[in-house]
Amino acid sequence: MNRVALVTGLSGQDGSYLAEFLLERDYDVHGLVPYGRRELCDPRCQLHYGDLPDASRIAAVFNDVSPDEVYNLGAQSHVRVSFDLPVHTADVTGVGALRVLEAMRQHRDASGRSPRFYQASSSEMFGNAVSPQDESTPFHPLSPYACAKVFAYWQTVNYRDAYELFASNGILFNHESPRRGIEFVTRKVTNAVARIQLGLQDHVALGNLEAKRDWGYAGDYVRAMYLMLQQDEPDDYVVATGETHAVSEFVQLAFAAAGIDDWESYVRIDQRFFRPAEVDLLVGDATKAKAKLGWEPKVSFSDIVTMMVDYDIEFEKSKLP
Fold this sequence. Notes:
It is a single chain. This protein has helices at residues 13-23, 55-65, 79-84, 86-106, 144-163, 185-197, 218-228, 247-257, 287-293, 301-318, and strands at 4-8, 28-33, 46-49, 69-72, 116-122, 167-172, 175-176, 204-206, 212-213, 216-217, 236-239, 245-246, 267-269. It is α/β, with parallel strands linked by helices. The strands form four sheets. Strands 3-2-1-4-5-6-11 form a seven-stranded parallel β-sheet, sandwiched between helices. A two-stranded parallel sheet has the order 7-10. Helix 1 links the parallel strand 1 and strand 2.
């Protein structure tokens, strides 16, 4: 029989890439998705409508699906928005993970086993900790989103220790793709660049261009998620490229990919897009993931930017009359 995976957040960037990856390996993939959110869902997946604040619905899906592996990718994951919606973010991103863990603890298959569990943790948990950050770096969250992720991280560790569940955290640094939501700065930039090239808008408004991040490719990072759940023992891993780039570098490369050299003339700085507490620098040390999982990133930073710009140019062209 095929192995069964349950993915929360299946309709998001990571969920869609993970679903494709698992389907290629003959998994039966089920997704917990909010009603009406089907845009990135592979039609080969079986969808179950529900939200992470609904504990009874999560438990019902576990009973219906009886998964072998659970990937908790669902969250309110926009850092800037989390300052405006802190309670909602804490409920969905933090306590939502706990609800999934508790449903998993209570669920047993016919042989009495619980599923293996992956928690999508975040580099934002480190805040402005000394770089590079690895699994031993202390957390210093600087946003409601990061605080919620720290709560979910430690609940995952607690359920592993207290109930001997196979539960692993993947501390993923920033990862992008053409499937990134347009509300996130990377996709906002590449979409704006495409529209500027096509004459559909004349500038893009951005916040802190000096923030530095470790950017990888989402399609690479879902491989690491899968590999974590194939190990003999559960553990926590940083997943990162080890490179850091400023937002301004991302913007410059995006405009260059569209054949526009004077990028600064198209950028407006807007204070609305600054965070109340800024994280200046994130860069990860994925030595442990490389050694234990055999994982390596494959797609370069510049290739990610070009891929996203090329996609958005074609995407915007497709909407023209």
